[in-house]
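DUF2165 domain-containing protein, pasting as requested.
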Amino acid sequence: MALRLSRIALTKSVALLFTLIAFGNLTDYGTNFAFVQHVLAMDTTFRSPGVMWRAITDPTLHHAAYILIIAWEAATAVLLWAGVMRLWSARGGTAAAWNAARGPAILGLTAGALLYGLGFLVVAGEWFSMWQSREWNGQASAAIFLTFIGLTLIHVSAAETE
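Structure tokens follow.
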């Protein structure tokens, strides 16, 4: 039972994280919008001509990208909260019932890992050269979130046997 409660608590922590992130981005839209804007515009990178063709400078596309990020965060939170409820309901059941209940949590954790791994480290970090920016580099924060989410995903994904 302790192992199950640990998995539920960690999933709940990640659900709360994504809830607060989405809420913060909705209620303080401008702060992180500036981050997205600078990363996409690549205006604080080394400005090497070999990569500057990747820059997106259209404000409409900046808003579209940011709205997509917020929607991804909110959808991740919803999946995780559904996962928490399913895990909580299955906490005293059989191993088969527990394993079957993990689906939404695993999907939510995977969505979160994709946001920070693919979205922030791969797309923003490498494609838009975010790593070159001193002012608008979110790779360290993304790595912290990805570590937390990834460890939780590994923990929750481990199948139980009778």
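Note for the archive: The radius of gyration is 18 Å.
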